[in-house]
Amino acid sequence: MKKNEKRGENCPVELTLSLIGGKWKGVILYHLIDGKKRFGELKKIMPNITQRMLTKQLRELESDGLIHRKVYKVVPPKVEYSFTEQGESLKNTILSLEKWGKSYQKQRKL
Coiled coil: which residue ranges (predicted)? Predict the structure, then answer.
């Protein structure tokens, strides 16, 4: 990527999709809407994602400032993921995607 071609610089939709796009990021955000989750909880509700991919996607969402990772100093280690303030602003967008998806499923009888 060239210096003047920063991620989504010219198009806000491109930027948004670069942050939440892909197979898993939107799904992770969707599952965080109803509150913080531990890694194991996310893995359990998304059985088709590998542990490696879940870790990668969580790290990217954290790096982009959309989720917060809280580590508790206990044994065994406890880590929780939740929305940051910036991530909270995506909730309505994610819920709109859910609504659209349900409508599409119904129309297509999926």
Answer: none
Enumerate residues 6+ apart whose C-beta is below 8 A from 53. Answer: 24
Q: Which amino acid is residue 56, in one-letter code?
A: K
Q: Report in angstroms the alpha-carbon separations of 30 from 7, 41, 76, 106.
A: 23, 13, 27, 20
Q: How many CB atoms lie within 10 A of CB 15?
A: 14
Q: What is the pLDDT of residues 42-80, one digit of tens each?
A: 999 999 999 999 999 999 999 999 999 999 999 988 999
pTM of the model: 0.86
- Residues paired with 78 in a beta bridge: 72
Domains of the chain, first to last: 12-108 (1.10.10.10)
Question: Which residue shows structure tokens 């210096």?
Answer: 3
